[in-house]
User: What shape does this take?
Amino acid sequence: MKIQLQSKSGDETPFVYWHLSGPTIENFFSVDKENTVVIDWLDRYSPPIMKTFRDKTDKYLVRIACYLENIIDLYFPLKFDPQNWYIIPIDDYLEPIKLNILHSLFASVSCLSQGLFLQSGIIIRSITEDCLVLIDLLENEGQFEKLDGGTYSTTGLIKRVKTKIPKDIIQWYGYFSGNFAHFGPLHSAPYLPNACYADNWVLVTGFQNFVRAVITLHITLEKIYHEQVGHHMFWDEDNEGELTFKENSQGFVWANELGAEIVKEFPPDERKTGFTYHSKSFKTK
Assistant: This one.
C-alpha cells in the first residue's frame, strides 16, 4: 500500500511516501497504549535502574556535580566586550552553545543512570565536538563570521583546532567517535540495562567518560575566558601572552583520584554470583 502524504493546504507532498505491506496504518495504533515498550521503559524499567545507580554512586556523583557547579557559576555568566567583535553579536551565539553543552551533560548522566551506557557516550562525543567548536570560533580567524553568515561547517574541525587544545581532548574525541558515535565494538556487545546495575565495567567506564566531558568543558571555557578570570587551573600565560597547557593540572589530579576510588569500590573485572556474563570480551578502540 502506498500512502501519499498531503500538506495542510491539501497540496500533495510528492517526496514523502509510506510503503506498507499487509496491515493498514490504522493497525499500527490498535495496540494497548498502556503496554508499549516506550511507556514500560519510562514507567517500569528505568526508575529501578536509576535508583540503584544513585544508591551505589551518589557519593561520587555529588563530587562531580559540585565540580561542574563551580564551572557553571564561574564561566556561564561571562560575556565578551561587543566592541571587540564589531557588529557580530558573539554572545548571542556562545550562550546557546554553552547551554546546549550543559543540557547534553544532563542528558548523558541521565542515560548513564538508566543503564544506557552506549547512548551516554554518544552524547559525550557531541559535547566534545561542541567544545572544540567554541575554540574554533574564537581562535581561528573567519570561523565566527562563517557561523554568523550561516556557512560554518565542522568539516576540518580537528585539523583547525588540534594545535590549540590539549592532545588529550583530541584523543578523547577519537575515542568517543570510534566507540560510541560510529559503529564499533560496543554496538554489537550483548549488554542490557539491569535494575541492580551489575556490570562494574560499565559503571566505571561510564563515570570516566562523564568526568572527561566535564574536564573538557572546563579546559575549553578557561581558555576562551582566560582574561576574564583570576584563577587558572589548566592554562598558564607566558611572558609573551601565549597560553600553555598544564599537563599536571590539579584538575587531572582530582579526576585521577576520583577514578581510583571508583575502581577500588567497583572492580571492573568482578564477576558477581547470580549473573551470567558473556564469554567474549568487547574491547574499546
Notes: The CA atoms of residues 204 and 260 lie 10 Å apart. Residues 37-75 form the longest helix (39 residues). Strands lie at 2-6, 12-19, 235-237, 243-245. DSSP finds eight helices and four strands in the chain.
